[in-house]
């Protein structure tokens, strides 16, 4: 009997907030997080239930690239032409039971796979399966249930003989969304309790975001372990809660935090741009370069390590709590 195994996601470091002075960081945790109590405080926040639904998606794409979002929260960015045989776990984007929204942003495959064209082919296809399993039973394949199967629309196109063709043919971008139902034992607010960031002055918003990113980079560069743990606690607890993490997994991730913080880093600056998620309530800075597949869609927080043999980037998602101003911009919790 095959087992899906533990849910693995790239453990990222996050910070909480900063003031006008990049050394002044607003502490959103009422109790100080230290090297000694970090794991205990994490475990105190994680709850376990008789049933622990885990939702995941399989995607099959042909002649196209894509971004996948759940409730307008980014799950996957597939900008290198390939198809995945492993599922994408989506609980971190499911804040409560009820109707959820799955969105695909679909782009043309690279020209070398697309007959030299820079638009979507009439033969492009994208299909998916949403499944649910129970974390309590170990995510056994035999226990998974299909919630929804679907594919991006096909149409009968004028001027083409034969059958159905991709509805986005001839375009450089095509978006497709579908709704599905999910049932989870927890309920979180996260970005739904935030302000619409698109209504703020974009220049001032970008300046504030850059200050926060600079504090993050400085703390990782100077190996301030307790500052790093303190700053990322609120954000990571959402992932831990939604994926019902175990003590073993918390311990492993704790070690990954320490290892990553102590790693010698060669930070790279290729330029950035602002992007919004969560219906405008989440802000992230990503690479402005869309031509290089090694950079496209990646966070602007990007460094090389191991004598420049390896690369690492981590997305930092920011929001403003309801009723706040630009000065309240902070890491998403």
Low-confidence stretches: 1-30
Taking the alpha carbons of the first and last residues, their distance comes to 37 Å
Q: What is the strand arrangement across the widest sheet?
A: 4-1-6-7
Main structural class: alpha+beta
| Biggest sheet descriptor | 4 strands, antiparallel
Give the averaged pLDDT, no decimals. 87
- Tertiary shape: globular
Order of helices and strands: HEEEEEEEEEEHHHEEEEEEE
According to DSSP, the number of beta strands is: 17
The percentage helix is 10-25%
As a whole number of angstroms, the C-alpha radius of gyration is 21 Å
Strand content: 25-35%
**Individual helix count:** 4
Tell me which oligomeric state these chains represent.
single chain
What would your notes on this structure say?
- With about 325 residues, this protein is of the alpha+beta class.
- The protein contains four helices and 17 strands.
- The protein has helices at about 40-45, 200-220, 225-240, 245-260; strands spanning about 55-60, 65-70, 75-80, 90, 100-110, 125-135, 145-150, 155, 165, 175-180, 265-270, 270-275, 280-285, 300-305, 310-315, 320, 330.
- It has a four-stranded antiparallel β-sheet with strand order 4-1-6-7, with no helix packed on it. Strands 3-2-5-10 form a four-stranded antiparallel β-sheet, with no helix packed on it.
- It is globular, with a radius of gyration of 21 Å.
